[in-house]
Amino acid sequence: MSSEVRASGKNELPNEMTVTGWRRQSNTFSATDLVSSVASAVESGKSLNAYITTTPERAMDQARHSTERQKSGAGRALEGVVIGVKDNFCTADIQTTAGSRILEGFIPQYESFVTKKLLDAGAVFFGKTNLDEFGMGSSTENSAYGPTLNPCGIALGSSEFVPGGSSGGSAAAVAADQALAAMATDTGGSIRQPASFCGVVGFKPTYGACSRWGIIAYASSLDQAGVITKTVGDAALLMDVIAGSDPKDSTSVAYDFGGFEHSLRNTSGAFTVGIPRQFRDMSTTPDLEGVWQEIERRVSAAGGCVQLVDLPTIKYSLPTYYIIALAEASSNLARYDGVRFGYRANDPKNLIDLYERSRAEGFGRETKRRIMLGTYCLSAGYYDQYYAKAQRVRTMIYNDFARAFEAVDFLAWPTTPTPAFKFGSHNADPVSMYLEDVFTVPVNLAGLPAISLPIFQAANGMPMGGQLIGPRFSDARLLAVANSMLK
Questions:
Q1: Catalytic annotation on 190?
Q2: Does 253 fall in a domain?
Q3: 86 is annotated as an active-site residue
Q4: Is the residue at 232 inside a domain?
Q5: pLDDT tens for each residue of 338-357
Q6: DSSP line for 316-385
Q7: Domain count within the chain
Q8: What CATH number does the domain containing 367 carry?
Q9: Is 245 assigned a catalytic role?
Q10: Does residue 7 sit within a domain?
Q11: Is residue 8 part of a domain?
């Protein structure tokens, strides 16, 4: 059958380009057929620039091994599933750049905790997906390897729309059938926002649910690994593999989530969803109002009820987030000095010149802006005024969430204030780009699980997502409720 598919060119796999779809078809198509299908999609969709590095030969070798295991009945949980990996996960013997020139040519000799668990479960890696440099951006325009295009925009005949960021390459790859699923990270919305813009599912688990070991850090107290998929069921399958404690990461937690896929088989039961007045009362557009109404309709259809709640400090989330994130970035990115690995300036005059020029030439404009702002927030005389105060406000925001969850089971609001915007529309004003994160950053400050669901089509034909947020460690039930909202 697999040779007939390749010979005829009539590959039926794109119609089932989901993890669950692959499971249904794995008796008909081999893992090598699946890699061939993905390779064809990547080749024909090169203009998307979803990948920085592709490894088709390596993927085919992995697929052959998966095929043999399937034939022998020894298939593992993700046997043969082709995955794209955001290029800030360290992958052994594959270049890892974090979308930055300063890491060009860096080839780790070790595997991140999360990607190793995926490989051990039989997943096949097709390559490393594009991202804003070090995860700093909301559009994937800040990559040293060029921007990624939005496949939904391409389908509408336009290459002007961004895919979101920073995980724009991961979202675009899944939406364009260039992977069945993709790994991503979420520091301030970097999974959920591109998922919304590209019309796919993006799940950010509770902070600590997935180890950060081997992930190139942006802001350590905010970064969290997660998944971008076509369906909630696919997200659950991947989470069953990658969630778990890790002794190498002091922030990972030992918690029994009870099985993500198993939770989908249970009816969600009665539940209450809170709508924050502070977001609902914001000035709105017809598109944003449409998302609100669709959220409320789907909650009701899934057997839930909606009520208004108060999150009084949520209005301080954006400035609080950017102070904390940029301060931590300033510290984390200090290690890139041109000495030990990555980019090094040519013919330095002395050691100080090597440091200065390597960093000036290796980092992009937005990354340098954020490093300088973060360094300022941590400098003498300003630490207490900015960073320490932001941490106190962060605690207040967390406490507001905790009080809200005493009254409701979940919270919900739109993932983004707008559908995908056009390339260059925020370049003249960085603050306007930061405002795109207004609906996503509160979740990261509180360390909560959240999922973006593709539920609405804007007037211009582009998708918009609705966001469902749960208390810490409610990840499995959150996925069950989210799944019922998409039925």
A1: yes
A2: yes
A3: yes
A4: yes
A5: 998 889 999 999 999 999 99
A6: GHHHHHHHHHHHHHHHHGGG--SSSSS---SS-SSHHHHHHHHHHHHS-HHHHHHHHHHHHHHSTTTIII
A7: 1
A8: 3.90.1300.10
A9: no
A10: no
A11: no
